[in-house]
Amino acid sequence: MSNLDVIEIKAFIPAKDFELSKCFYQDVGFKLASSGGGIAYLHCGNASFLLQDFYTDALVKDFVMHLLVKNVDGWWKQLEDAGIAVKYDVKIGKIETQPWRMRDFVLVDPSGVSWRIAQNTD
Predict the structure, then answer these.
(1) Is the CATH code 3.10.180.10 the one for domain 12-120?
(2) pLDDT tens, 17-46?
(3) Which of 1, 18, 24, 87 has its CA 20 to 30 A from that of 75?
(4) What ranges do the domains of the chain cover?
(5) What whole-number percentage of the chain has pLDDT above 70?
């Protein structure tokens, strides 16, 4: 029988300005593990994604990432203290309690990709 174990899954995040997006994600707290050929591999703890030097409005319009963290207040404060919204002209929403038992906020990257950064409440 074949070994069907999964190692990981990563999304390809579109970037309108690839270099700007690489800087943005590093300032947010992701580490750049590699970059070449229009793809950058970024990670933070057990979370990772591939940033791609590719963009279309249609792709970004409904593209949403979800990042589950232990301390949503800490993440929000880190982004505010770093001036991410002003530096990159992006939106950082307020922390809200959701009916699906999470507290989260929305961060929109320079290309328009939405991130819901959340913490479980239970």
Answers:
(1) yes
(2) 999 999 999 999 999 999 999 999 999 999
(3) 18
(4) 12-120
(5) 99
